[in-house]
Structures are given as structure tokens and as C-alpha cells.
User: What shape does this take?
Amino acid sequence: MKVNMLVIGQGICGTFLSHYLEKAGLSFLVIDDARPQSASRTAAGVINPVTGRRLVKTWMIEELMDFARKAYEEIGIKLGIQCLTETSIVDFFPTPRMRLTFLERQKEESTFLAMPVDEKDHLQNFHYEFGYGLIKPALLIDLSSLLNAFRKKLSAAGQLMESIFEINALKLSENGIKYQDIDAEWIIFCDGTTSFTNPEFRNLPFAPNKGEVLIIETEGIPMTKTIYKKGISLVPLENNLFWVGSSYDWEFKNEAPDRIFRERTELLLLDWLKRPFTILDHRAAVRPATLERRPFVGFHPLYEHVGILNGMGTKGCSLAPYFSNQLVENIVTQKPVLPEADIRRFSKILSRP
Ligand SMILES: Cc1cc2nc3c(=O)[nH]c(=O)nc-3n(C[C@H](O)[C@H](O)[C@H](O)COP(=O)(O)OP(=O)(O)OC[C@H]3O[C@@H](n4cnc5c(N)ncnc54)[C@H](O)[C@@H]3O)c2cc1C
Assistant: This one.
């Protein structure tokens, strides 16, 4: 089989890379092992424009958000699904100090921060003492529908090989790559945490970060797609189900769900929600994060047919569409990838044996 591109992984990166390859008229095959605990299948799908206790705007957010809006609408139309909702985040202030910080920041940052008309209007469902602010607009992506629908499309078109990619079977040549009976001009690794051990890319400064979440069922909280936040986030799914999370662990012993997270989060929920709830599931995944919190995009300095699209960290939903498009533009028109994301900034360490 001959294709322009072999794509490894069908998380949010592999999905958007395939989408833009198709738009550019390039042929491709995706190999994905369908592991249920990938980051993309565990994520909430929130694009939150501000971050941290100081509520600073996230890197390039205006540009990324505009791009994401168009990208998710476009891919949704292609798949016949709606996977993007414009929403707001109800940010309950955990302390009077956080309330002050919000009010101060709102004076400087009126694009994404606002005060509601009536701060008491969520008292029916939540315990909160210090009011709340609104972060808006935020975007909510239905990752499950998107990944499933795209996978179905790939499968129907014969563009998906559901198996584990074995790096030892990859052969590099001057004109491209060979893997089993597949000849391709390029291979791009969109395999999330597996890249941490890839011989060509393991020298990149990855910083694995474990996140855990609960799935709960509760009645009474409106399923209006509003996201609620008080230390942890409560994100509506469907049929009275909510995603609750998450943790950010830089040091962890294993990738499995941990009893301590479940117990701690259950206590937080008992303290916060006025409605009874049932925990239905507990999941964990490792985020492919990076030390300097910027993605890894582009081709290896020594192997020009081998590339990577990874390192999306906590922001895969906003970064993956934008940088997938940049990578395909780079292939088709040689337009450079943004220097802060281009892996050529690590040429020296990638050239080490
Ligand atoms: C708890 C949690 C919450 C999160 N919430 C958000 C959020 O709300 N918003 C946001 O923007 N980001 C969020 N993230 C981060 C986001 O999930 C990641 O940035 C993003 O999913 C990374 O996507 P990816 O495609 O690079 O990797 P992955 O999602 O890990 O995809 C990699 C794919 O490659 C496949 N694969 C791996 N190795 C092989 C192999 N050897 N052979 C074949 N296939 C292979 C896997 O099966 C998988 O399908 C969250 C992450 C976690 C863990």
C-alpha cells in the first residue's frame, strides 16, 4: 500500500491532522490501537480562555479560539455531527480573596471575564458563600462524538488500521518510510504518551502529567451545557451525567485511577452540591505535557520524513486543530511552523545519539 502519510494515533491530534491532510488532497493511513484511557478520551473538552488563580489569558487564546470555532464547525459538518458548543464557566469564588482578584482582573480583562446579573441564582443547586464570576465565551467540545464519528469515517474509507504500531518495524529510507507493507513519504507521530519512549523523539523535554476524573449522575442541575467550577470543574455530558475533575499530578507511581482522588473529590462534591449524586466511573490518563508548556510540531532535524504533533498538555482541544493545520501547510507550501512550537528549537538535543 502506498500513501503520502502514515499517521500514528487517532486522538485529537491524529484526527485533525487527518482532516487537514484530506483537505489538502494528500493520501494517508492512520494506525491506532484504540486504547480507552488515552488523554483525548478522558478529557472534558473545555477550551477555557483564562488560567490559574490570577486568571491570565492563555497563550495565543484569541487566535486559537477563533481557529477552533471554525475548525470544529467544519469537521462537524463533514461528519454530520455537532461537536462544538459556545458556553460560559460559572466560576464560584472559593474565598473572598479570589472574589477580589476576579473583580480586579475584570477591570483589565473585560473580553473574557464578567459579573452575572444575580450572583445568587445558583443557590438552588450549589453551596457557595462568596458569589461567582463568569468566564465567557468558553468552548465545550464533544470529544467522544468527534473521535467516534471520525474513526467510523476512516474505517469506512479503509484509512484506519486498528493495531499497535511497533516502532521496531519502522524502516527509514532516503525517500520516505516503510512499515510492514505500507510505503509512505512521511510518518507523523500523534501517539500521545507513547512518543515519550520513541527513539527519535524521547529526548524532547516531555513532562508527563496525570489527570483523574469522576463521572457522576445527579438530577436537578440543568443540562444547559454551562460549566461549573469551584476548585474542580463540573462539566455536563448528557442524561444527567457530569464529568468531574481533574487532578494535575507531575509525580505519580502509575497511570491507574487512585482511591485517594476518588475520596477527596467525593468530599468536595458533598460540600459543594445540594443535590444527591452517584459516582458511576473513575478514570485516569496521562497528559502529553511539555516542560516549557509549548507543543512539539514538525519534522526531525536528522530524519526529514519523520515528524511529530504532540505535547498539547492541558490544551489539546485548542492547540490540536491549529497546529495540525500548520503542519499540513508546512508540508504543502513549506510555510514555517510557529517557532515556539517547531521542534527545530530542539535540533541540538534531537541530533544527539
Ligand atoms: C483528565 C484530563 C482532562 C483533560 N481536559 C482537557 C480539556 O478540558 N481541554 C483540553 O483542551 N485538554 C484537556 N486535556 C488534555 C488533552 O486531553 C490532551 O492535550 C490531548 O488529548 C492530547 O491529544 P493527543 O492526540 O496528542 O494524544 P492522545 O489523546 O493520547 O492520543 C494518542 C492516540 O495514539 C494512540 N496510540 C498511542 N500509542 C500507540 C501505538 N503504539 N500504536 C497505535 N496507536 C497508539 C492512542 O490509542 C490514542 O488514540 C485533558 C487531559 C486529561 C488527562
Observations:
- The CA atoms of residues 198 and 319 lie 22 Å apart.
- The chain has a mean pLDDT of 96.
